[in-house]
Amino acid sequence: MAAPGEPAPAVTATVMTTNGGHRSALNFPDYRRSVALKYVKRGYTFLMSYVLTIALVPLAGMLLLELVNMHRTGELTRLLSVAKQTDLTFNLVTVIATIGALMGVVISYYILRTRPVYLVDFQVYRAPDSWMATYTRFMAGSRKCGRFTDEALDFQEKIMTRSGLGQETYLPPGLMHYASMANHHVNGSTGTPTSRAVQVVPPECTMENARKEFEMVVFPIIEELLQRTGVHPKQIGILVLNCSLFNPTPSLTAMIINKFKMRSSILSYNLAGMGCSASPISIDLAKQLLQLHPSSYALVVSTENITQNWYFGNDRDKLLPNCLFRVGGAAILLSNRRRDAWRSKYELMHTVRTHLGAKDEAYSCIFQMEDQERNIGVRLTKELFAVAGEALKINVTTLGPLVLPLSEQLLFFFNLVARKVFGYRGKPYIPDFKLAFDKVCIHTGGRAVIDEIERQLQLTNDMVEPSRAALYRYGNVSSASIWYVLAYLESFNGMRRGDRIWQMGFGSGFKCNSAVWRANRNFKCLHQAWEGFNLEEMRAHLASLPNHHNKKGS
């Protein structure tokens, strides 16, 4: 780390390139070096949109106090007595105007105020043990499919052992390669193999098996969520689903509506191609819809489908997703009904979305395409870290005015005035975001990504460890990853009333999106997804990896 008063060093991350397998250091730009004023202005623009509503509250209080004071001194009584005997006086006109203004303020407040958005509860998916993809099982399947060269196999094995993923992540049956039927998972109640048709060699990446994967991941978590919250499927007024790479017809939302027999007037939205940052986008869309439809429930589903999106070629920049992406999904129930506040876990405070798609290097840094042999895969370019750093900078500087305490904002403001007005040449003051949030949920895009965000935002290890745990236990489960991190926090740390939680996702486009929640009550609940998790085993595994953040030079 840089000494106090010295400029922060550029952060680097080492990755494998496609040019002969040589290593090169890619810069993750340090957002602390400068702050773009236009993004700070954007944050304050968001904040100012609430000013009118906030200003009405003290105005109404002042008008009410004036009426109370006139009543206490007996002036109202005298005015009424005079009004019965004479024409209206100036003071009586003042009274009527004050009452009218007070009524106008109250009515305006109720018209302008936004409806609260509560997170009633959520559920994340835990696959059966038969889907488990240990390192050995993963590599055995890759070899048996006969599609990879020796160099590609060596590359996958090297990435797997250094990725930060553990031995208990999950892959769908369509990609699990079995040498014999003895390895099939047996249903305990019927004694018959489950998903027998797809557990074969070579893998069967068919539409049917992709649908089965979706049904086996999404249907159980929705059913469990609705049962636990006591909400009937026909009470759901809004359904928002995001899944980037699998979008059949009828849509995935139609599959859910058909399965749970939801009402015909439901507003359903199927978001495709939005990448790993899509869950905050879905939450933001549901929030806006809940402002328009009073007394409604919104169901948000975030998942990714692996079966039809495995890369069977040998380009290294397309093999990385094979090593990192795993099965997962999350279902979230939102409500704008004030009577749900007492039982809801959180209230949504802010959503901030950043999209760099106008820049060619950002647009193309994560790109689904064919290789020379017509194998479809998702390419990750060497510009990815630079683009992610820029997106993080914009999103953080926009979010700052909404969440930072006043003391940090004043320090930033005075530093800005000193540099812009008085020519002070010192470095910009970067606010401490640890003062704005109690807990952080970072998208589990990879070990290097989590490490560099920890360094960039100067977060503590305790704030980042839940994200490392989610990567270790479940891998990169795309947009659902931030919910696995939140489930970890609820299971092991618990929540206190007023805790502020920051969910942060990165994804193709390129996008960086944030959602900020506030805990409504004190609670601690163990999610099934985290039952039996060995935290010390994870810590020992990460400590043994090369270039782990704890081993980096200071």
TrEMBL record:
Molecular-function GO term, any one: acyltransferase activity, transferring groups other than amino-acyl groups
GO biological process, one term: fatty acid biosynthetic process
Domain FAE: 110-421
Pathway per the UniProt entry: Lipid metabolism; fatty acid biosynthesis
Pfam family, one: FAE1_CUT1_RppA
UniProt keyword terms in alphabetical order: Acyltransferase, Membrane, Transferase, Transmembrane, Transmembrane helix
Uppermost EC category: transferase
Keyword Transferase: yes
Keyword Lyase: no
Domain of life: Eukaryota
EC number: 2.3.1.-
Parts of the chain that traverse the membrane: 47-68, 88-112
GO cellular component: membrane
Family, per entry: Belongs to the thiolase-like superfamily. Chalcone/stilbene synthases family.
PANTHER family found in the cross-reference section: 3-KETOACYL-COA SYNTHASE
Protein name, UniProt field: 3-ketoacyl-CoA synthase
Gene source species: Chlamydomonas schloesseri
Taxonomy of the source species: Eukaryota, Viridiplantae, Chlorophyta, core chlorophytes, Chlorophyceae
